[in-house]
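Repro:
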Amino acid sequence: MSGWMDHLIVAPILLPIVVSALMLSFDERRRAVKRLLGLGTTGALAIIATLLIWQADGGLGGGAGPRAYLVGDWPAPFGIVLVADRLSALMLLLTSVLGFTSLFYALARWDRSGPRFHALFLLLLAGVNGAFLTGDIFNLFVFFEVLLAASYGLILHGSGAERTKAGLHYIAINIATSLLFLIGVAMIYAVTGTLNMAELARRIPAVPAADLMLLEAGAAILGIAFLVKSGIWPLSFWLPRTYAVAAPPVAAIFAIMTKVGIYIVLRLSSLLFGAASGSAADFTDQWLIWSGFATMAFGTLGILATRTLSRVAGHYVLVSSGTLLAAIGIGGEALTAAMIFYLASSTLAVGALYLIIEPVERNADEEDFIAGIAEPVFDDEYTGAIEKDGDEIGIVIPGTIAVLGGGFIFCTLLLAGLPPLSGFIAKFAIIDALFRNEAVGPTSWILIGLIILSGLATMIALTRAGIDLLWTPADEAPARLSVIEVVPIAVLLSACLALMIWSGPAFRYIELTAATLRDRTAYLEAVLDAPRTVEAPR
Protein backbone atom coordinates (compact mmCIF):
# COMPACT_ATOMS: atom_id res chain seq x y z
CA MET A 1 0.00 0.00 0.00
CA SER A 2 1.13 3.53 -0.58
CA GLY A 3 -0.23 7.05 -0.35
CA TRP A 4 -3.89 7.45 0.42
CA MET A 5 -4.43 3.70 0.41
CA ASP A 6 -2.54 3.53 3.71
CA HIS A 7 -5.44 5.33 5.39
CA LEU A 8 -8.31 3.44 3.76
CA ILE A 9 -8.85 1.25 6.83
CA VAL A 10 -9.70 4.18 9.12
CA ALA A 11 -12.13 5.77 6.64
CA PRO A 12 -15.22 3.64 7.56
CA ILE A 13 -14.94 5.02 11.10
CA LEU A 14 -13.73 8.56 10.51
CA LEU A 15 -15.99 9.48 7.58
CA PRO A 16 -19.42 8.93 9.25
CA ILE A 17 -18.22 10.61 12.47
CA VAL A 18 -17.05 13.73 10.63
CA VAL A 19 -20.20 13.96 8.49
CA SER A 20 -22.52 13.43 11.48
CA ALA A 21 -20.72 16.22 13.35
CA LEU A 22 -21.14 18.44 10.28
CA MET A 23 -24.87 17.66 10.19
CA LEU A 24 -25.30 18.99 13.72
CA SER A 25 -24.35 22.45 12.47
CA PHE A 26 -27.39 22.50 10.15
CA ASP A 27 -30.88 23.44 11.24
CA GLU A 28 -33.55 20.73 11.08
CA ARG A 29 -35.17 22.59 8.21
CA ARG A 30 -32.11 21.87 6.05
CA ARG A 31 -33.39 18.38 5.51
CA ALA A 32 -32.38 18.16 1.86
CA VAL A 33 -28.74 18.86 2.72
CA LYS A 34 -28.76 16.22 5.45
CA ARG A 35 -30.32 13.67 3.13
CA LEU A 36 -27.70 14.33 0.49
CA LEU A 37 -24.87 14.07 3.01
CA GLY A 38 -26.29 10.90 4.54
CA LEU A 39 -26.81 9.07 1.25
CA GLY A 40 -23.45 10.25 -0.07
CA THR A 41 -21.68 9.00 3.05
CA THR A 42 -23.34 5.58 3.07
CA GLY A 43 -22.65 5.22 -0.65
CA ALA A 44 -18.99 6.12 -0.07
CA LEU A 45 -18.82 3.54 2.74
CA ALA A 46 -20.00 0.86 0.31
CA ILE A 47 -17.25 1.82 -2.14
CA ILE A 48 -14.61 1.83 0.62
CA ALA A 49 -15.75 -1.58 1.86
CA THR A 50 -15.52 -2.95 -1.68
CA LEU A 51 -11.96 -1.63 -1.98
CA LEU A 52 -11.04 -3.22 1.35
CA ILE A 53 -12.43 -6.57 0.19
CA TRP A 54 -10.43 -6.30 -3.02
CA GLN A 55 -7.36 -5.37 -1.01
CA ALA A 56 -7.77 -8.24 1.46
CA ASP A 57 -8.18 -10.64 -1.46
CA GLY A 58 -4.86 -9.57 -2.98
CA GLY A 59 -5.94 -6.66 -5.14
CA LEU A 60 -4.44 -3.14 -5.10
CA GLY A 61 -0.95 -4.59 -4.56
CA GLY A 62 0.75 -5.84 -1.44
CA GLY A 63 -0.61 -9.39 -1.54
CA ALA A 64 -3.63 -10.96 0.14
CA GLY A 65 -4.12 -11.08 3.88
CA PRO A 66 -4.90 -8.88 6.88
CA ARG A 67 -3.80 -5.22 6.91
CA ALA A 68 -3.11 -3.34 10.15
CA TYR A 69 -3.42 0.41 10.69
CA LEU A 70 -1.51 1.91 13.63
CA VAL A 71 -3.54 4.86 14.93
CA GLY A 72 -1.15 7.59 16.08
CA ASP A 73 1.74 5.49 14.73
CA TRP A 74 2.04 3.68 18.06
CA PRO A 75 3.09 0.03 17.60
CA ALA A 76 0.96 -2.84 18.85
CA PRO A 77 0.25 -3.87 21.54
CA PHE A 78 0.77 -0.39 23.09
CA GLY A 79 -1.31 1.68 20.69
CA ILE A 80 -4.71 1.50 19.02
CA VAL A 81 -4.70 -0.80 16.00
CA LEU A 82 -7.33 -1.38 13.33
CA VAL A 83 -7.26 -4.58 11.29
CA ALA A 84 -8.94 -5.25 7.94
CA ASP A 85 -9.00 -8.86 6.81
CA ARG A 86 -11.40 -10.81 4.63
CA LEU A 87 -13.99 -11.26 7.40
CA SER A 88 -14.04 -7.68 8.67
CA ALA A 89 -14.11 -6.27 5.12
CA LEU A 90 -17.07 -8.52 4.27
CA MET A 91 -18.94 -7.33 7.37
CA LEU A 92 -18.19 -3.71 6.40
CA LEU A 93 -19.72 -4.25 2.96
CA LEU A 94 -22.78 -5.95 4.47
CA THR A 95 -23.23 -3.02 6.88
CA SER A 96 -22.86 -0.38 4.17
CA VAL A 97 -25.36 -2.05 1.83
CA LEU A 98 -27.91 -2.40 4.62
CA GLY A 99 -27.17 1.14 5.80
CA PHE A 100 -27.61 2.71 2.37
CA THR A 101 -30.90 0.94 1.66
CA SER A 102 -32.31 1.64 5.13
CA LEU A 103 -31.43 5.33 4.92
CA PHE A 104 -32.86 5.57 1.42
CA TYR A 105 -36.09 3.98 2.65
CA ALA A 106 -36.24 6.48 5.52
CA LEU A 107 -36.49 9.34 3.00
CA ALA A 108 -40.09 8.32 2.26
CA ARG A 109 -41.16 9.86 5.59
CA TRP A 110 -39.41 8.24 8.55
CA ASP A 111 -36.53 10.69 8.82
CA ARG A 112 -39.07 13.48 9.42
CA SER A 113 -40.68 11.91 12.51
CA GLY A 114 -37.95 13.10 14.87
CA PRO A 115 -34.85 15.29 15.05
CA ARG A 116 -31.27 14.38 14.06
CA PHE A 117 -32.13 11.08 12.44
CA HIS A 118 -29.31 11.21 9.89
CA ALA A 119 -26.62 12.16 12.41
CA LEU A 120 -27.64 9.30 14.73
CA PHE A 121 -27.76 6.89 11.80
CA LEU A 122 -24.21 7.73 10.73
CA LEU A 123 -22.91 7.45 14.30
CA LEU A 124 -24.46 3.99 14.48
CA LEU A 125 -22.62 3.00 11.30
CA ALA A 126 -19.36 4.41 12.70
CA GLY A 127 -19.73 2.30 15.86
CA VAL A 128 -20.58 -0.86 13.93
CA ASN A 129 -17.68 -0.36 11.52
CA GLY A 130 -15.31 0.29 14.41
CA ALA A 131 -16.39 -2.93 16.15
CA PHE A 132 -15.59 -4.89 12.97
CA LEU A 133 -12.19 -3.24 12.48
CA THR A 134 -10.76 -2.93 15.97
CA GLY A 135 -7.91 -5.16 17.07
CA ASP A 136 -8.23 -4.30 20.75
CA ILE A 137 -10.88 -5.44 23.23
CA PHE A 138 -11.05 -2.15 25.13
CA ASN A 139 -11.56 -0.19 21.91
CA LEU A 140 -14.20 -2.77 21.05
CA PHE A 141 -15.99 -1.59 24.21
CA VAL A 142 -15.64 2.03 23.06
CA PHE A 143 -17.15 1.31 19.65
CA PHE A 144 -19.92 -0.74 21.26
CA GLU A 145 -20.84 2.28 23.37
CA VAL A 146 -20.84 4.53 20.30
CA LEU A 147 -23.23 2.28 18.39
CA LEU A 148 -25.42 1.73 21.46
CA ALA A 149 -25.67 5.45 22.22
CA ALA A 150 -26.80 6.09 18.64
CA SER A 151 -29.21 3.14 18.77
CA TYR A 152 -30.87 4.58 21.90
CA GLY A 153 -31.86 7.68 19.93
CA LEU A 154 -32.94 5.67 16.90
CA ILE A 155 -35.09 3.20 18.84
CA LEU A 156 -36.98 6.13 20.39
CA HIS A 157 -37.26 7.92 17.03
CA GLY A 158 -40.90 8.78 16.44
CA SER A 159 -43.75 8.68 18.92
CA GLY A 160 -45.93 6.28 20.85
CA ALA A 161 -46.11 4.91 24.37
CA GLU A 162 -45.19 1.34 23.35
CA ARG A 163 -42.10 2.48 21.48
CA THR A 164 -40.96 4.55 24.45
CA LYS A 165 -41.56 1.69 26.90
CA ALA A 166 -39.70 -0.87 24.80
CA GLY A 167 -36.93 1.64 24.13
CA LEU A 168 -36.36 2.28 27.83
CA HIS A 169 -36.19 -1.47 28.47
CA TYR A 170 -33.67 -1.76 25.64
CA ILE A 171 -31.54 1.01 27.15
CA ALA A 172 -31.59 -0.53 30.64
CA ILE A 173 -30.59 -3.97 29.32
CA ASN A 174 -27.68 -2.63 27.30
CA ILE A 175 -26.37 -0.49 30.15
CA ALA A 176 -26.31 -3.64 32.31
CA THR A 177 -24.49 -5.62 29.60
CA SER A 178 -21.96 -2.79 29.24
CA LEU A 179 -21.14 -3.25 32.93
CA LEU A 180 -20.62 -6.98 32.32
CA PHE A 181 -18.41 -6.06 29.37
CA LEU A 182 -16.15 -3.94 31.60
CA ILE A 183 -15.97 -6.63 34.30
CA GLY A 184 -14.93 -9.25 31.75
CA VAL A 185 -12.33 -6.91 30.22
CA ALA A 186 -10.87 -6.15 33.66
CA MET A 187 -10.57 -9.86 34.53
CA ILE A 188 -8.85 -10.70 31.24
CA TYR A 189 -6.41 -7.80 31.67
CA ALA A 190 -5.66 -8.87 35.24
CA VAL A 191 -4.52 -12.28 33.99
CA THR A 192 -2.75 -11.37 30.73
CA GLY A 193 -1.66 -7.74 31.13
CA THR A 194 -2.92 -6.78 27.66
CA LEU A 195 -6.15 -6.30 25.71
CA ASN A 196 -4.69 -6.32 22.21
CA MET A 197 -6.25 -9.33 20.50
CA ALA A 198 -3.08 -10.44 18.71
CA GLU A 199 -0.98 -10.13 21.87
CA LEU A 200 -3.67 -11.97 23.83
CA ALA A 201 -3.46 -14.82 21.30
CA ARG A 202 0.27 -15.07 22.03
CA ARG A 203 -0.02 -14.88 25.81
CA ILE A 204 -3.05 -17.10 26.52
CA PRO A 205 -1.27 -20.42 25.80
CA ALA A 206 1.30 -19.48 28.47
CA VAL A 207 -1.25 -18.57 31.18
CA PRO A 208 -0.46 -20.56 34.37
CA ALA A 209 -2.94 -23.21 35.42
CA ALA A 210 -3.65 -21.29 38.62
CA ASP A 211 -4.88 -18.27 36.59
CA LEU A 212 -6.75 -20.23 33.93
CA MET A 213 -10.05 -20.24 35.81
CA LEU A 214 -9.95 -16.43 36.22
CA LEU A 215 -9.22 -16.04 32.50
CA GLU A 216 -12.09 -18.31 31.49
CA ALA A 217 -14.44 -16.57 33.93
CA GLY A 218 -13.55 -13.20 32.42
CA ALA A 219 -14.05 -14.54 28.91
CA ALA A 220 -17.41 -16.04 29.94
CA ILE A 221 -18.63 -12.74 31.43
CA LEU A 222 -17.46 -10.93 28.31
CA GLY A 223 -19.25 -13.53 26.21
CA ILE A 224 -22.51 -12.96 28.07
CA ALA A 225 -22.39 -9.29 27.02
CA PHE A 226 -22.00 -10.34 23.38
CA LEU A 227 -24.66 -13.03 23.62
CA VAL A 228 -27.21 -10.59 25.06
CA LYS A 229 -26.64 -8.33 22.06
CA SER A 230 -26.95 -11.36 19.76
CA GLY A 231 -30.31 -12.29 21.27
CA ILE A 232 -29.40 -15.69 22.72
CA TRP A 233 -32.01 -17.47 24.85
CA PRO A 234 -32.81 -16.93 27.70
CA LEU A 235 -31.38 -13.41 27.28
CA SER A 236 -33.44 -12.68 24.16
CA PHE A 237 -36.78 -11.58 25.63
CA TRP A 238 -36.16 -7.95 24.70
CA LEU A 239 -35.34 -8.38 21.01
CA PRO A 240 -38.62 -9.27 19.21
CA ARG A 241 -40.57 -6.60 21.07
CA THR A 242 -37.93 -3.89 20.63
CA TYR A 243 -37.42 -4.53 16.93
CA ALA A 244 -41.18 -4.68 16.39
CA VAL A 245 -41.81 -1.17 17.69
CA ALA A 246 -38.85 0.46 15.95
CA ALA A 247 -39.37 2.44 12.77
CA PRO A 248 -38.93 0.15 9.72
CA PRO A 249 -35.57 1.59 8.54
CA VAL A 250 -34.26 1.44 12.12
CA ALA A 251 -35.34 -2.19 12.52
CA ALA A 252 -33.68 -3.01 9.20
CA ILE A 253 -30.29 -1.56 10.20
CA PHE A 254 -30.65 -3.20 13.62
CA ALA A 255 -30.51 -6.55 11.79
CA ILE A 256 -26.73 -6.03 11.53
CA MET A 257 -26.36 -5.20 15.24
CA THR A 258 -27.07 -8.75 16.37
CA LYS A 259 -24.39 -9.86 13.89
CA VAL A 260 -21.84 -7.63 15.64
CA GLY A 261 -22.06 -9.93 18.67
CA ILE A 262 -21.85 -13.00 16.41
CA TYR A 263 -18.78 -11.55 14.68
CA ILE A 264 -16.99 -10.92 17.98
CA VAL A 265 -17.76 -14.42 19.25
CA LEU A 266 -16.41 -15.89 16.00
CA ARG A 267 -13.33 -13.64 16.05
CA LEU A 268 -12.40 -14.26 19.69
CA SER A 269 -13.18 -17.98 19.68
CA SER A 270 -10.95 -18.55 16.65
CA LEU A 271 -8.19 -16.13 17.66
CA LEU A 272 -8.01 -16.54 21.44
CA PHE A 273 -9.56 -19.94 22.15
CA GLY A 274 -8.73 -21.96 19.06
CA ALA A 275 -6.70 -25.14 18.79
CA ALA A 276 -3.42 -23.30 19.44
CA SER A 277 -4.57 -21.76 22.74
CA GLY A 278 -3.29 -24.49 25.04
CA SER A 279 -5.42 -25.35 28.06
CA ALA A 280 -7.97 -22.64 27.19
CA ALA A 281 -8.77 -24.12 23.78
CA ASP A 282 -12.44 -24.73 22.92
CA PHE A 283 -13.73 -24.19 26.47
CA THR A 284 -16.80 -22.30 25.18
CA ASP A 285 -17.83 -24.68 22.39
CA GLN A 286 -20.44 -26.73 24.26
CA TRP A 287 -22.03 -23.63 25.74
CA LEU A 288 -22.33 -22.06 22.28
CA ILE A 289 -23.78 -25.23 20.78
CA TRP A 290 -26.56 -25.77 23.32
CA SER A 291 -27.43 -22.10 23.77
CA GLY A 292 -27.66 -21.89 19.97
CA PHE A 293 -30.02 -24.87 19.89
CA ALA A 294 -32.20 -23.37 22.63
CA THR A 295 -32.37 -20.05 20.78
CA MET A 296 -33.35 -21.75 17.53
CA ALA A 297 -36.11 -23.71 19.29
CA PHE A 298 -37.40 -20.60 21.08
CA GLY A 299 -37.34 -18.56 17.88
CA THR A 300 -39.15 -21.29 15.94
CA LEU A 301 -41.92 -21.50 18.54
CA GLY A 302 -42.17 -17.71 18.55
CA ILE A 303 -42.53 -17.62 14.77
CA LEU A 304 -45.47 -20.03 14.96
CA ALA A 305 -47.10 -18.41 18.00
CA THR A 306 -47.10 -14.75 17.00
CA ARG A 307 -49.67 -13.17 14.70
CA THR A 308 -47.80 -9.90 14.16
CA LEU A 309 -45.54 -9.83 11.12
CA SER A 310 -42.90 -7.63 12.75
CA ARG A 311 -42.60 -10.10 15.65
CA VAL A 312 -42.24 -12.96 13.18
CA ALA A 313 -39.24 -11.10 11.77
CA GLY A 314 -37.86 -10.58 15.28
CA HIS A 315 -38.11 -14.26 16.13
CA TYR A 316 -36.44 -15.14 12.84
CA VAL A 317 -33.51 -12.94 13.91
CA LEU A 318 -33.26 -15.21 16.97
CA VAL A 319 -33.31 -18.31 14.77
CA SER A 320 -30.48 -16.95 12.63
CA SER A 321 -28.42 -16.00 15.70
CA GLY A 322 -28.91 -19.46 17.20
CA THR A 323 -27.93 -21.14 13.93
CA LEU A 324 -24.74 -19.10 13.68
CA LEU A 325 -23.69 -19.68 17.29
CA ALA A 326 -24.33 -23.42 17.13
CA ALA A 327 -22.23 -23.58 13.95
CA ILE A 328 -19.42 -21.65 15.65
CA GLY A 329 -19.52 -24.09 18.57
CA ILE A 330 -19.42 -27.20 16.36
CA GLY A 331 -16.56 -25.68 14.36
CA GLY A 332 -14.70 -26.84 11.29
CA GLU A 333 -13.45 -24.86 8.30
CA ALA A 334 -16.22 -25.95 5.93
CA LEU A 335 -18.94 -25.21 8.50
CA THR A 336 -17.43 -21.79 9.25
CA ALA A 337 -17.52 -20.90 5.55
CA ALA A 338 -21.14 -22.04 5.27
CA MET A 339 -22.24 -20.06 8.33
CA ILE A 340 -20.58 -16.88 7.01
CA PHE A 341 -22.54 -17.27 3.76
CA TYR A 342 -25.69 -17.85 5.82
CA LEU A 343 -24.93 -14.74 7.88
CA ALA A 344 -24.76 -12.55 4.77
CA SER A 345 -27.87 -14.00 3.12
CA SER A 346 -30.06 -13.98 6.25
CA THR A 347 -29.06 -10.43 7.23
CA LEU A 348 -29.95 -9.03 3.81
CA ALA A 349 -33.22 -10.99 3.71
CA VAL A 350 -34.30 -9.91 7.21
CA GLY A 351 -33.46 -6.30 6.36
CA ALA A 352 -35.67 -6.52 3.27
CA LEU A 353 -38.48 -8.10 5.32
CA TYR A 354 -38.42 -5.29 7.89
CA LEU A 355 -38.66 -2.73 5.09
CA ILE A 356 -41.57 -4.51 3.40
CA ILE A 357 -43.58 -5.12 6.58
CA GLU A 358 -44.89 -1.58 7.02
CA PRO A 359 -46.27 -1.21 3.46
CA VAL A 360 -47.83 -4.67 3.72
CA GLU A 361 -49.58 -3.81 6.99
CA ARG A 362 -50.42 -0.22 6.02
CA ASN A 363 -53.88 -1.10 4.75
CA ALA A 364 -54.70 -3.35 7.73
CA ASP A 365 -57.03 -2.31 10.51
CA GLU A 366 -55.48 -0.17 13.19
CA GLU A 367 -55.99 -2.99 15.71
CA ASP A 368 -53.59 -5.17 13.73
CA PHE A 369 -50.73 -2.80 14.42
CA ILE A 370 -48.76 -2.87 17.64
CA ALA A 371 -50.92 -1.34 20.33
CA GLY A 372 -49.99 2.11 21.46
CA ILE A 373 -47.80 3.22 18.54
CA ALA A 374 -49.03 6.52 17.21
CA GLU A 375 -48.39 7.48 13.63
CA PRO A 376 -45.95 10.40 13.46
CA VAL A 377 -47.09 13.66 11.97
CA PHE A 378 -45.20 14.65 8.87
CA ASP A 379 -44.80 18.14 7.53
CA ASP A 380 -44.64 17.10 3.88
CA GLU A 381 -47.33 15.42 1.84
CA TYR A 382 -46.70 11.72 1.34
CA THR A 383 -46.76 11.33 -2.44
CA GLY A 384 -45.85 8.78 -5.01
CA ALA A 385 -47.57 5.54 -5.98
CA ILE A 386 -47.20 2.53 -8.17
CA GLU A 387 -50.41 2.12 -10.05
CA LYS A 388 -51.68 0.00 -12.90
CA ASP A 389 -53.41 2.04 -15.57
CA GLY A 390 -55.54 1.00 -18.49
CA ASP A 391 -58.51 -1.27 -18.97
CA GLU A 392 -58.15 -4.84 -17.75
CA ILE A 393 -60.31 -7.86 -18.46
CA GLY A 394 -61.09 -10.08 -15.48
CA ILE A 395 -59.66 -9.64 -12.02
CA VAL A 396 -57.27 -6.73 -11.74
CA ILE A 397 -54.32 -6.96 -9.35
CA PRO A 398 -53.37 -3.42 -8.34
CA GLY A 399 -49.76 -2.46 -8.92
CA THR A 400 -49.16 -1.97 -5.21
CA ILE A 401 -50.34 -5.49 -4.35
CA ALA A 402 -48.35 -6.96 -7.24
CA VAL A 403 -45.10 -5.32 -6.13
CA LEU A 404 -45.59 -6.00 -2.43
CA GLY A 405 -46.78 -9.54 -3.08
CA GLY A 406 -43.82 -10.35 -5.28
CA GLY A 407 -41.33 -8.93 -2.79
CA PHE A 408 -43.04 -10.66 0.12
CA ILE A 409 -42.98 -14.03 -1.64
CA PHE A 410 -39.28 -13.54 -2.42
CA CYS A 411 -38.56 -12.78 1.27
CA THR A 412 -40.57 -15.82 2.34
CA LEU A 413 -38.66 -18.15 0.03
CA LEU A 414 -35.32 -16.67 1.14
CA LEU A 415 -35.98 -16.97 4.86
CA ALA A 416 -37.58 -20.40 4.62
CA GLY A 417 -34.57 -21.65 2.66
CA LEU A 418 -36.33 -22.96 -0.44
CA PRO A 419 -34.36 -23.62 -3.65
CA PRO A 420 -32.76 -22.17 -5.63
CA LEU A 421 -32.26 -18.93 -3.69
CA SER A 422 -29.30 -17.97 -1.50
CA GLY A 423 -31.11 -18.96 1.69
CA PHE A 424 -31.33 -22.54 0.42
CA ILE A 425 -27.69 -22.53 -0.70
CA ALA A 426 -26.61 -21.33 2.76
CA LYS A 427 -28.62 -23.94 4.67
CA PHE A 428 -27.61 -26.70 2.26
CA ALA A 429 -23.95 -25.71 2.71
CA ILE A 430 -24.31 -25.92 6.50
CA ILE A 431 -25.92 -29.37 6.32
CA ASP A 432 -23.33 -30.55 3.79
CA ALA A 433 -20.51 -29.35 6.06
CA LEU A 434 -22.04 -31.23 9.00
CA PHE A 435 -22.19 -34.44 6.97
CA ARG A 436 -18.58 -33.96 5.86
CA ASN A 437 -17.36 -34.16 9.44
CA GLU A 438 -15.57 -37.40 10.26
CA ALA A 439 -18.16 -38.29 12.89
CA VAL A 440 -21.72 -37.01 12.53
CA GLY A 441 -22.72 -36.81 16.17
CA PRO A 442 -25.99 -35.97 17.93
CA THR A 443 -25.28 -32.24 17.87
CA SER A 444 -25.02 -32.32 14.07
CA TRP A 445 -28.37 -34.11 13.74
CA ILE A 446 -30.03 -31.70 16.17
CA LEU A 447 -28.77 -28.69 14.19
CA ILE A 448 -29.97 -30.23 10.91
CA GLY A 449 -33.40 -30.92 12.41
CA LEU A 450 -33.74 -27.41 13.82
CA ILE A 451 -32.71 -25.84 10.50
CA ILE A 452 -35.42 -27.81 8.69
CA LEU A 453 -38.09 -27.16 11.34
CA SER A 454 -37.33 -23.42 11.55
CA GLY A 455 -37.58 -23.15 7.76
CA LEU A 456 -40.94 -24.92 7.79
CA ALA A 457 -42.21 -22.69 10.61
CA THR A 458 -41.09 -19.59 8.71
CA MET A 459 -42.89 -20.74 5.58
CA ILE A 460 -46.10 -21.40 7.52
CA ALA A 461 -46.07 -18.12 9.43
CA LEU A 462 -45.20 -15.87 6.47
CA THR A 463 -47.65 -17.62 4.17
CA ARG A 464 -50.38 -17.16 6.77
CA ALA A 465 -49.50 -13.48 7.12
CA GLY A 466 -49.40 -12.99 3.36
CA ILE A 467 -52.87 -14.48 2.94
CA ASP A 468 -54.28 -12.30 5.72
CA LEU A 469 -52.65 -9.02 4.68
CA LEU A 470 -52.15 -9.22 0.92
CA TRP A 471 -54.29 -11.78 -0.82
CA THR A 472 -57.55 -11.54 1.14
CA PRO A 473 -60.02 -9.28 -0.73
CA ALA A 474 -60.40 -5.92 1.00
CA ASP A 475 -63.18 -3.35 0.81
CA GLU A 476 -60.77 -0.42 0.67
CA ALA A 477 -58.33 0.38 -2.10
CA PRO A 478 -54.75 -0.76 -1.44
CA ALA A 479 -52.43 1.71 0.22
CA ARG A 480 -50.22 3.87 -1.95
CA LEU A 481 -46.61 2.76 -2.32
CA SER A 482 -43.81 5.24 -2.86
CA VAL A 483 -41.05 4.49 -5.34
CA ILE A 484 -38.62 5.53 -2.58
CA GLU A 485 -39.86 2.51 -0.60
CA VAL A 486 -39.66 0.10 -3.52
CA VAL A 487 -36.07 0.81 -4.56
CA PRO A 488 -34.29 -0.20 -1.30
CA ILE A 489 -36.34 -3.38 -0.99
CA ALA A 490 -35.45 -4.24 -4.58
CA VAL A 491 -31.76 -3.55 -3.93
CA LEU A 492 -31.63 -5.90 -0.93
CA LEU A 493 -33.50 -8.67 -2.72
CA SER A 494 -31.26 -8.18 -5.76
CA ALA A 495 -28.22 -8.58 -3.50
CA CYS A 496 -29.64 -11.93 -2.33
CA LEU A 497 -30.27 -12.86 -5.95
CA ALA A 498 -26.66 -11.95 -6.77
CA LEU A 499 -25.48 -14.24 -3.96
CA MET A 500 -27.39 -17.04 -5.64
CA ILE A 501 -26.11 -16.35 -9.16
CA TRP A 502 -22.50 -15.79 -8.13
CA SER A 503 -22.45 -18.23 -5.24
CA GLY A 504 -19.33 -19.88 -6.67
CA PRO A 505 -17.07 -16.79 -6.46
CA ALA A 506 -18.71 -15.83 -3.16
CA PHE A 507 -17.89 -19.23 -1.66
CA ARG A 508 -14.32 -19.04 -2.95
CA TYR A 509 -13.85 -15.79 -1.03
CA ILE A 510 -15.64 -17.11 2.06
CA GLU A 511 -13.68 -20.38 2.11
CA LEU A 512 -10.45 -18.36 2.11
CA THR A 513 -11.94 -16.30 4.95
CA ALA A 514 -12.62 -19.45 6.98
CA ALA A 515 -9.10 -20.70 6.29
CA THR A 516 -7.55 -17.48 7.62
CA LEU A 517 -9.68 -17.74 10.76
CA ARG A 518 -8.40 -21.26 11.37
CA ASP A 519 -4.76 -20.26 10.83
CA ARG A 520 -4.21 -17.13 12.92
CA THR A 521 -0.54 -16.69 11.93
CA ALA A 522 -1.22 -14.08 9.25
CA TYR A 523 -3.37 -12.02 11.63
CA LEU A 524 -0.73 -12.03 14.38
CA GLU A 525 2.05 -11.07 12.00
CA ALA A 526 0.02 -8.29 10.41
CA VAL A 527 -0.71 -6.69 13.80
CA LEU A 528 2.43 -7.29 15.86
CA ASP A 529 4.88 -6.75 13.00
CA ALA A 530 3.09 -3.79 11.39
CA PRO A 531 5.70 -1.20 10.34
CA ARG A 532 5.52 2.31 11.78
CA THR A 533 5.36 5.27 9.43
CA VAL A 534 8.20 6.99 11.31
CA GLU A 535 10.96 4.88 12.79
CA ALA A 536 11.53 5.38 16.52
CA PRO A 537 14.85 7.06 17.42
CA ARG A 538 17.54 4.75 18.71
